[in-house]
Amino acid sequence: MEQIPFDNTFVKLGADFFQSKSPDPVTDPYLVDFNPEAARLIQIHPGESSREAFVQFFSGSQVLPGSEPLAMVYSGHQFGVYNPRLGDGRGLLLGETRLPNGETWEIHLKGCGPTRFARGFDGRATLRSSIREHLGGEAMHGLGIPTTRSLAVIGIRELIYRERPELAAILVRLSDSHIRFGSFEYFHYTNRPEKVRELADYVLARHFPDIADEPDRYRLLFRRVILSTAHLLAAWQTAGFVHGVMNTDNMSITGTTFDYGPYAFIDRYNPHFTSNHSDTHGRYALGQQPEIAHWNLGKFGETLIGLVPAEHLQQELEGYQPLFNRLLRERMGKKLAIQVLDEEFTTLAGNLLRYLYETRIDYTNFFRRLADYQVDNRETRFESQGQKSDLETWLAHYQRLLDREDTDPEDRRKEMNRVNPKFILRNYLLEGAITKAIQEGDFSEVERLRILLQDPFRDRPEIFAQYKIDPDVYASDTPDAFIEHQLSCSA
Question: Which residues are known catalytic residues?
Answer without folding.
Answer: 249
